[in-house]
Design goal:
The chain is an alpha/beta fold. The chain has 15 helices and twelve strands. It folds into three domains: about 100 residues, no CATH class; about 220 residues, Alpha-Beta Complex (Spore Coat Polysaccharide Biosynthesis Protein SpsA, Chain A), CATH 3.90.550; about 70 residues. The longest helix has 26 residues.
Amino acid sequence: MSDFIPRKILHIELSQDIPILVADTNPAFFYVVFWWHGIPLGHQEILNQQLPMSAEQLLDLAVQTITPALKSHFSKKNILFMEASTTTSPRELMKTWEQPFAKLCKEWSKCENYSVSVVICTRDRPEQIAQCLRSLQNLSHPPEEIVVVDNAPSSDATKQLVTQIPGVRYVLEPRPGLDFARNAGIYNSTGDIIAYTDDDVVVHSDWVMRLRQSFRDPQVMALTGLVIAAELETESQYLFEKYWSFNRGYQSLIFDSQYFAKYQFLGVPAWRIGAGANMAFRRKVFELVGDFDERLDVGAAGCSGDSEFWYRVLAEGGICHYEPTAVVYHTHRKEMDSLQRQIFFYMRGHVTELLIRFEKYRHWGNLVRLGLMPVYFTYVILFGIFKQQPRLKTLLAEIRGCFSGAKFYFNHQKLTKLQNISQPSIEKISSKLH
């Protein structure tokens, strides 16, 4: 994609004045995220040929974009939703939606009385962790504690940085591997809720507040939130956002035993639940289903420690909740070589995860999904060639990662007590909670 054009990310708050968009002298597209009263409701990519765009045209586009998310929010509260029509102007619609949506926003502002520990795992990236910690200092509702887990560092640069910041605790985990670090975060924190984010992330000022609100349902064991790209300036960043995005949309989603049963025959796609860059758990869940499997993620297989854990939560009858009002911003890798390496480890971790799932539960759907991978790659190749998709640029890394994942698993196999939960029941977790 040598003719790649950068995307300028623009955040528009619809309760304020709507801007006029004009073409820049330097070619760039707009990637516009629409917010209303501090709630993200959708995004659109606006091409240069669509410019200039008046405030009224942009508002019309915004209304079309945010309608699915608004409709979802309203329906969950049994609020009558007025659909757009040819006789209704965008401004009239916004006025119609204003009062019920403001009421929802007020309700969302009520926090549950949970203590929150924020855990950031890092390794030799003091500049990134410094930026992340700065964003955590500006939260509207600060957590009870912030814990930085320094994973097998090659120097004391991160320690020197963290120990100078008030209210941040430094923990050294000498064993290399992200899931060693995540588990160290469990043992070295005290909150009712343990929230994880990455060192290359900036958190929204309301992040912790939204996390607290989203654990109202006592059956929710795990939570994920919206991850918005911090920038889309390079080809590799755009490819990642297009094909591997952490963004799971702007509608709240529940993943439960019904979701698990629906997909179990084909290997439950637990990765749809969210991303490890923005996730939180009740402390109790680690007592019920165990810690992160240390064979997965960076420093080991390369990825999927989060989705394997969500799989266990679902398999044991718990509920995972995706809540898009809890927002962080992630900086994707800028160089194509770094992206290909990242995708290699994504697929290596994915294959390892499927085999670990089968090892623990004997759910045959995971092997079915593994067996269907050649079909999937054939489709990607044929469709990519036909459509001239840039996705093909990472395909070889994906295939290599799959073979490497199988090899990694068989070199790190564990003799575990196998469980059989072919009929997962919500009582498994709920009975232990009461």
